[in-house]
Every structure is written in C-alpha cells, then in structure tokens.
Amino acid sequence: MEIEKKYPLPPFTKATAREKVQLAEDAWNSQDPEKVSMAYTVDTEWRNRSQFINGREEVVAFLKEKWQKEKNYKLRKELWAFTDNKIAVRFEYEYQNAEGAWMRAYGNENWEFNAHGLMHKRYASINDLPIDETERRL
Prior knowledge:
Shape: globular
Largest sheet: 6 strands, mixed
Helix content: 25-40%
Oligomer: single chain
CATH class: Alpha Beta
C-alpha cells in the first residue's frame, strides 16, 4: 500500500511554505469539498470559529454546507510564519450571504502537518464584516 503524500513536504522552507499556502488557496477557491479534504489527514482536527470538526468526512460535510450558504466565494491567503512542520496564514475572503448582502471575512489560521505533507490540525479564527458591493476587493 502506498503512503498518501501531499507535496511539498515538511520541513518547510520559505519557498515551500509559500507554495503550500498557494495550493491551499487554489483548492479552497475551487469550492470542491472532496478536493479540499484530500489535503488533510483522515483524522484531521479543526477549529473553525466556534465549531469543532474531526476527520475528512466532517470536513466534506462542513464545506458543502459552507459553500451552499456563501455564494460567490473568493479567498486570498498570505503566509504569515512557518517552522519545520507548521504554517500560519492570514486570509480574507468575500461572499454573498443568503440575503444577497456582501460580506468580507478576515482571519488567521494555524496549520500543523504530518511528515507526509497532510494537514493534521487547522485552527481558524475568523471575523465577518458587512461590505457594500462597491467595496469588494476580490
């Protein structure tokens, strides 16, 4: 049986940490829950705002619900810091809520990877701000 790997692998350099962040941004912007979930360990642990999510199956369910509610979703991530197997990012994303109002979400994520490049832990702190459509940046 082949071991599942997701490149680049830790330990991270500045270049590989930036690459990992860009790959995550691209995956999330695809809004494909199955594709996104494959970057995480089978037993991944998340805190997303005040919600706790455990395992790929819960990740897929969470993302399906998220993107049903957050229309016209567009995300940008930026590398903040990194160590051997950890990366911190700041991000912002914009979306329309169920009523059609535009929102911008800001936040930080702390990621921890296993030796095979799969994210085992993801802790996200996020704040939402209503914006006018003319204020959109993404």
